[in-house]
Amino acid sequence: MITTIGAIVRGERDVFPPYLYVAYRSTILRSPHQPLVDVPLTLSELTGPGPAISAITPEDGDLTRNAGTDGEAIGQRIIVTGHVLDEQGAAVPNTLVEVWQANAAGRYLHQNDRWPAPLDANFLGIGRCLTAADGAYRFLTIRPGAYPWKNHPNAWRPAHIHFSLLGPSAASRLVTQMYFPDDPLHARDPLFTAVPEAARPRLIAAYDHDITEPEWALGYRFDVVLRGPRATPFEATRESRR
Amino acid sequence: MTTLGLTPSQTVGPFHHPCLLRDDARRNVLVQSETAGERIRIEGHVYDGDGAPVTDALVEIWQANSYGRYHHPADQRAVPVDPAFAGFGRSGTDETGRYWFETVKPGRVPYDGNRAQAPHICVTVFARGLLNHLVTRLYFADERANAEDPVLERVPEHRRATLLAARAVVGGVVVYRFDVILQGAGETAFFNV
Description:
Mean pLDDT of chain B: 97
Largest interface: A-B, 86 and 75 residues
Shape of chain A: globular
CATH topology of chain B: Protocatechuate 3,4-Dioxygenase, subunit A
CATH architecture of chain B: Sandwich
CATH topology of chain A: Protocatechuate 3,4-Dioxygenase, subunit A
Structural class of chain A: mainly beta
Radius of gyration of chain A: 19 Å
Low-confidence stretches of chain B: none
Number of helices of chain A: 4
Oligomer: heterodimer
Largest sheet of chain A: 5 strands, mixed
Helix content of chain B: under 10%
Order of helices and strands of chain B: HEEEEEEEEE
Number of strands of chain A: 11
Order of helices and strands of chain A: HHEEEEEEEEHEEEH
Distance between the termini of chain A: 30 Å
Mean pLDDT of chain A: 94
Number of helices of chain B: 1
Number of domains of chain B: 1
CATH class of chain A: Mainly Beta
Number of strands of chain B: 9
């Protein structure tokens, strides 16, 4: 895939995708042209909404049965679990994890998703839970399907689950996507390939037979690493490597 | 010491609305009747490099209460917590690219032992086409303290105006307008934090 990769990146260049990545066409008009301003992390960035909002948000971690229909979603039932950690490996407890995904046929319950794949009346494709004291989270869901999009001819998004984490501080805020192992669509997906190659494996869940439950569901492990309470400015991170 | 690699960011995409903006996750109104402080409305549009409205963005804000205290365990100063104010807002953008919040004007918070920051609101923007979220700050254009704000002074002078929200009184409501321009003429200054 030939693409123009912009020089403007928030955070570590070997981890985070650039704002401009021409192969992903929506970046062309939405990426800033001016350099980001390096500023120190102040009390405003070292605090954040995570603790207060996590404490008042109800958990809703079973996507197979949360549509309010008394019915169960159709699809391959899976358990997605892992730990939310900071760079030092410390658990991030009691933090809100919000997820959304397409159904087993690859369709979102959203007015702008109109490709001819079936909807599932028993599947909303949304869930949320809090991490436990050891940083562990867990969702029960169904494996999402791949779906086409209009980015380029015959473009298909690999199966993925969207994750949003508030984390302990504003500096730890992260929205990302979890992919499944051994998917031939990864290399053809400009969202996935926008991530520097060495960091791409961090977006792929691992199949884990110890998580798989007999006669019930397949298990996947996906750990998430956020900037922690001792976060240093990205600027200083870069300089320390020179 | 173990150092783990950070998880890379990915775009929020076009289909986040049912999850991140469901009734009890959307937070346009940050205030309750008991919240202390001057009521203000924050309103603005998000525009792309063609000046077209970004209709599928997600805008989050984080701010101190009217006394200048964050609702967070890392802020242990002897400044009152307001139990009726968490300080977090989350809004979508509508078909015109507009987002809005009803909040209070934040008090000043410290920069270091000697200096205070001007009142400000941290703003984070997510959208389809943003592989990583954008981080900026809203400052209040009518604040004298802006002239001595140590973060604002890091912003090149010709770009500072992009962070200043202008005050207007509309039907008795104090409104601060803050447009976010992702690219091009008048591009908002974004931070590497």
